[in-house]
Amino acid sequence: MPMTGTVRDNGVHMITASSAAAELELRRGEFALAVHLGIVRVGARQSGGRAGVHREEIDRLRSEDGFPGTLQERVRTVGTADGARLLGISPVRFSRLARAGCVTPVAFYLNRYRAVVWLYLAQELGGLAARSPELMVGNSPPWMRSRLDAGTDCRARNWRARRTERLLALTEDPWARAAVVGEALDPVQLAEVVDDPYERAYLGRVRPVPVFGQGGSAAGREAMAQLMLADEPDEILWRRVTLGMELDGARELRAAPRPGEERCPGSTVDSGASAEPAVPVRPFGPVRRSGAEEASAERPESGTRGDDAQEDRTQEDRTQEGSEREAGGGDGAAGLLARFRLRRTPRRRSARRTAGGRGKRFAAGARTRHSWHHADQGSHR
């Protein structure tokens, strides 16, 4: 078969995603689902380029027995009505099974009323009927009734967990793995765990993107963004803790790039990423100052008392060190909670601001005493 729509990957011809879907006789959504499930292995995306599929991968799938029927059956999805018909139960019972978490959605779409319609793999539904036939007939088990009576709906949460699990399985870069985990946190939660703005920007750049790009309507993308956010406390906590562990591994491998820094030869940062403005980076370690600067730094500012300012800074340093030992010390639970911003730690006040405030109060008191002195003199006249 001719190789139409090819791209190059280090000198090797690769078939574009759209041409690969046509050769595998899959629709656009079916091919994207096959890539997501790991059925079709896609080549690494090049800098600023498109993803492609090696010819050997196409030949391997086409040589399987029963092609293309077997491949199409592996990615066939059904909705509530078709899923209930496949299991031989009513649509109401199927919806109860889905909300209770017995079946996990694999995709969704918006109908004409902009309502979310969940889709399930047909092969997994057949496995559920064979594995738990008691759920198909008779009364629902007590655990399911109690869960449904409480208003629980596990469909969105299970879909998020499944999507994260698949993306982590397809991703080896530690920063990309952290981006996948943090995708389910809202901006406020993400900023509390990743307090470095450069790291948050880097997570946004290395986050895996779909093979066909961000397609679909604006309403579909908005629904996708809403469904991606974790909304239950235990899920949010799990995401925050997992993101912290992934960040620890990513930081050990390499640091997130800063503006003005040169790219390391061994880094895997995409060269096609948008360049950030060059901002001076504060160097690590003590800064050496000139003799004039050191002399001016030793003199207290006008209206301040140098001994009092130094004493305030020393007292604040002791307070800060005690709070850090109390919040993050050892292997206690308080340190873990404080690390992921689940408990507020005392904020450190600026020593310069404290010294300046004392100087302002001292100057204000001097002016007040001076005015009182003149008032007393006027009263004696």
Helix-strand layout with pairing:
Elements (H helix, E strand, L loop, with lengths): L5 E4 L2 E5 H7 L4 H9 L15 E3 H8 L6 H6 L2 E2 L1 H8 L3 H9 L7 E4 L5 E6 H10 L10 H8 L5 H15 L4 H9 L4 H7 L3 H10 L11 H10 L5 H21 L37 H8 L7 H23 L4 H7 L11 H30 L1
Antiparallel strand pairs: 1-2, 2-3, 4-6, 5-6
User: Average pLDDT, to the nearest integer?
Assistant: 75
* Neighbour order of strands in the largest sheet: 1-2-3
Q: Could you spell the SSE succession in H and E letters?
A: EEHHEHHEHHEEHHHHHHHHHHHH
Taking the sheet with the most strands, its summary is: 3 strands, antiparallel
Distance between the termini: 113 Å
Compute the number of strand runs.
6
Globular, elongated, flat, extended or rod-shaped: what is the shape?
Answer: globular
Oligomer: single chain
Total number of helices:
18
Spans of at least 5 consecutive residues whose pLDDT stays below 50 are: 264-314, 321-334, 343-356, 358-381
The SS-based structural class is mainly alpha
Share of residues in helices: 40-55%
- Name the beta content range: 5-15%
Task: Determine Rg (CA atoms, Å).
Answer: 31 Å
Give the structure's gist in a few sentences.
The chain is mainly alpha-helical and 381 residues long.
Structure description:
- The protein is built from 18 helices and 6 strands.
- By secondary structure, the chain is mostly helical.
- The strands form 2 sheets. It has a 3-stranded antiparallel beta sheet. A 3-stranded antiparallel beta sheet has the order 4-6-5.
- The longest helix has 30 residues, at 351-380.
- The model is unreliable at 264-314, 321-334, 343-356 and 358-381 (pLDDT under 50).
